[in-house]
Amino acid sequence: MHEDDFWSVTADAAVVPPAAGPEDTGPDVGRPRHRARTDAAPVRPGLTGPKAVLAPVVTVLTIGLVFVSVFLAAFHTPKAHRLPIAVAASDRSAALFDVRLQRMAPDAFQVERYQDDSAARSAVEHRAAYAAYLDVTGSPRLVYAGANGLAVTAMVTPLGHAAMPGSGKIKVQDILPLSQGDSRGLSTFYASFGLVLAGFLFGQMTYQLAPRLSFRQRMLSLVIFAVVGGLATALIASTIFDAIPGSFMALAGVVTLMAGAVAAGTVLLIRIFGPIGVPLGSIFMLVMGNATSGGVLPPSFLPGWLQPLASVMPAGVGVRAINGLAYFHNDGVADGVTILSAWVVFCFAAVFSLDRIAASTAIVHVAHRGKPSRAGS
Length: 377
What we know:
12 helices, 5 strands, disordered N terminus
């Protein structure tokens, strides 16, 4: 079969044909007919009766209630879970600091010992710890990274008093402050949320507006969307508003991969489940992805059942990589690029395989229908 014929059959097989109407009855019914390729969606009979009334209500309420449930579960009373705190101090000072932390907030912090001030400080700068208590030279102080957001800052700055309860507060220093263009620390979340939303909408609209696109055309469209979206988002967030510092091209690259991963995931869900893939995409890519992204609060503040998603969902690994580029010496960038690329490659391969299977099935079906019947011979 010629390659163009293969993609034509693939495009037709990927779309459910319209139900037979009165014009499909007669002596020619059942015979294979030529169908011109078009980007217009085939006309399908809509729901009628009680289903037409209830289906939109059930679908939209399901998405809305999942959104309310997940976001309230994650953020209604956020609590830190074993937030790592670096300590460079004598054994006695470190032990006393640990005891006071546990009394102040049981299970909220986890003390990790470091050999010297430099190592503990480096742990904060590379996001291995959220604050560091330094008491090696006899001048105790607490350092933290304001780039982790206002919620973390509000939680770790009182630790200075916990370290020295009897002699007042010690010196507390922000060694990685937020950018001047991002005073609330929410720019990364809003930038990523916008591209995640756009990626979901692309996956939905590519099948609504052009259901008969070939695999190559659909994937080319996805790549164009992701690249343009990544460049435009980096331009707006980094250049125009100066909200996300760091390399422009590196930021654009990460955002491009994140947008492509969400779009490819949505396309795959719709390719597998048809119309049901749209609400599934909104639940998994939008609701679950953004709730666990770490853009509002670090994953350490999430409930235990949500934390694992932060390390695999496109929004979560993308937000960590963006923050790493902006503040934390590229922490999370390598993992983010690897995971996001894996999402794109897997979804592309899965859609390609499904299209080939559908095309092969359609060819066999058409060939079978075209054979003359032996009945009565």
